[in-house]
Amino acid sequence: MERSQLDAMVYEAVFSEGEEKEARLREVREKAQALGGRLASIYPLYREIAREFRGFTVPAINIRGMTYDVARALFRVARRLSVGAVLVEIARSEMGYTRQRPLEYAAVVLAAAVREEFPGPVFLQGDHFQANRKAYQASPQTEKEALRQLIREALEAGFYNLDIDASTLVDLSRETLSEQQRPNYELTAELATYVRSLEPEGITVNLGGEIGEIGGHNSTPEELRAFMEGFNRCFRGEAGLSKISVQTGSSHGGVVLPDGSVARVQIDFDTLRTLSEIARREYGMAGAVQHGASTLPEELFHLFPEVGCVEIHLATGFQNLLYDHPALPEEFRQKIYAYLKEHLRHEWKEGWTEAQFIYKVRKKGFGIFKKEWWDLPQEVKAPIIQTLEETFERIFRALKVTGTLELVSGVIRS
User: Which residue, among 35, 61, 62, 40, has the nearest Cα to 116 in the 3D structure?
Assistant: First the structure.
């Protein structure tokens, strides 16, 4: 089978329905694997980093729209720059509003890697497998089962890297840090134990936890220790967490101003350095993880490797690039915005300008107009993809992951 035949297979699978869709997606994934595509856990690399920081920060990239095109661009650049240390991820919430379940995401991303003849393993990550606070308070067991079901679905699809996020349950009304973090570390340990019970033979899933919901107050060493001590008491298994997500001043999507622009955010790099050092030295993890980084000024990206940050998550910046690119037809852009204003007006918060509302909800346009995004003509896509490739290259170079393919291929053998 020619690699170019994957293009039609992917498209037909994504836009099929019901049982036919699932069968077609499985066929795409199997064809990609037959052509050399390999889904893997980054766990062995993170164990190496836990022993000695290697001087680079792993980018974890969320793809919300035009997934096959964007993933092909990503792997095209990764192959050219010999980048092996890169994760492609999707969050629980994104699966809903982008209409991409784990099997679809896995099939599309793996096919994109094979299409571009990317020679390394592909690391798929479940980002923010997050407990919904309101749902959990209403019925803990129901919410737990929803998370367990998502974990099963993701593992079956080939997501061997998972971030469990129960930081939404932290109770700041409690007196001690241990009691504040208790709902977080107990659920994280319970779900981590569950993941270990389902692991495919020969694979250790790379697991992350989170101590502070992104957008809240900056995390502290005391909070990190309170969480980890509690987690280690509750966890039943040998391999625990490899990394810990912390809050250092960012927010998901950035802080949008009334004119629709994004405010400049001050990241506390000293806190990030301190927490990464504690994670490695005291708990044998690879380090701390920075969320909400894609809307930061690119001139700051080189600082993440300098402070020992093991991983950063990048999502909204790529979304903004797609929506704001001059090559995107204005008629198409306004069609999406008009739909959002009509059908999602209930999400328009008091005090928001129209620009703030559009910025906050346009992520949902990727799912609602999914086929229209995929069907954009090549003359529209080409300049957008070119800009994406240039952006990927700058980020890879700043995070110092160029030339990591040999290291990754040597460490990741399963």
Answer: 35
- Max intra-chain CA distance, the chain: 63
Residue pair 111/33 in contact by the 8 Å Cβ criterion? no
The size of the chain, in residues, is: 414
Give the CA count within 13 Å in the CB-facing half-sphere of 137.
6
Tokens of 138: 């209403």
- Cα(384)–Cα(256) distance, rounded to whole angstroms? 23
Q: What is the mean pLDDT of each run of 10 residues along the chain (414 residues)?
A: 87 97 97 96 98 97 98 98 98 97 98 97 97 96 98 98 96 93 97 97 96 73 96 93 88 58 72 96 96 81 96 94 98 98 96 94 98 98 98 98 97 82
Alpha-carbon distances, residue 120 vs 45, 76, 86, 116 (angstroms): 13, 12, 10, 11
Tokens 């918060």 correspond to 349
In 3D space, the residue among 14, 220, 43 whose CA is nearest the CA of residue 123 turns out to be: 43
- Strands in 54-199 per DSSP E: 58-62, 87-91, 123-130, 161-165
CA 165 to CA 187: how far, in whole Å? 9
Residues 6+ apart with CB under 8 A from 198: 151, 152, 155
CATH node for 32-329+364-411? 3.20.20.70
pTM: 0.95
Is residue 292 packed enough to be buried (19+ CB in 10 Å), middle (13-18) or exposed (0-12)?
buried
